[in-house]
Amino acid sequence: MRRRLIKQPFTHAKQRYLLTLDTDGMKLYLRCYQGLSENNPEVPLKEESLWDKVFDLISNLEGSDLAVNALRTPDRILRRVRELCKIPYPPILEWDALIEQLQRSGSVTYEGDLEGLITYLEYRQLPVIHFAHRGERTIVDASPGSNHVRQVLDELKNEMDELDSKMKALKALHTDIFERKRRLDRQGGVRADW
Asked: What string of DSSP letters covers 36-72?
C-alpha cells in the first residue's frame, strides 16, 4: 500500500505542473504531471531547469535529503530519509526469518540484496558485521554480550593457521625438490625414478 508524502502544484516556465511523491516503504515514486491533475500526461524530468525546480520544491517542503533520495536513488529509501519522514518498512518475511536465524545461530550467509538487508538491520537496531569469505557473504550478530563475532574470528584464525602450515609444507617440498634437482644436475643427469 502506497503512502503519499507530497502532492504539490507548482509553476515552471509559465506552465502549471503537479508533483506527487509516494512510497510503498521500500521505494520512492516521484511523478510530475502537466496541469493540476494526476489524470494528465506525466512529464519526464529530463529538462535540467525542471529537475532543479522539483529538487528545490521537495527541499523546501521536506528537506534536501528527501529531494536527493527521490531524484537520484528512488529504488532504495535512505536511512536518514526513512527516519525524517517516518517511513516504516513493510513486513519483509524473508528478512524477518533471516533475523530469527541470525539471532539463534549467531551468523548467516546471504546472497540477496545485502545493502538493503543491512539498512533494514540498522532500522531494526540490530548491530551486525558483514564480510565476504570463500565466495559467501556472511552476516554476524554483533549484539553487546554475544560472543558470535569472537567465534567467527577464532574460526577465521584457525583457517589462517591451517593455510599457513600448508604453505610452509609446500615451501619445504619446493625446497626439497629444488635441492634434489641441483644435486642431480651436479652428478650429471636426471634419474628416471622421480
From this structure: T-TTSPB--TTSHHHHHHHHHHHHHHH-HHHHHHHHH
9-44: pLDDT as tens digits: 999 999 999 999 999 999 999 999 999 999 999 999
Range of the domain at 104: 93-146
Give the tens place of pLDDT for each residue, 141-179.
Answer: 888 878 888 787 888 899 999 999 999 999 999 999 998
**Closest-CA residue to 98 (of 83, 116, 86):** 116
184 falls within a domain: no
Tell me if the pTM is above 0.90.
no
Position of cell 569472537?
150
Assigned domain for 191 exists: no
27 touches 77 (CB < 8 A) = yes
Residue 185 has pLDDT above 90, yes or no: no
104 and 71, same structural domain? no
Using alpha carbons, select from 33, 21, 17, 102 the residue that is nearest to residue 61. Answer: 21
68 in any annotated domain: yes
Rounded Cα distance between 117 and 100, Å, is: 13
CB under 8 Å to 144, separation ≥6 — which residues? 127
Same domain as 8, residue 54: yes
**HSE (CB half, 13 Å, CA atoms) of 135?**
0
**Residue pair 9/55 in contact by the 8 Å Cβ criterion:** no
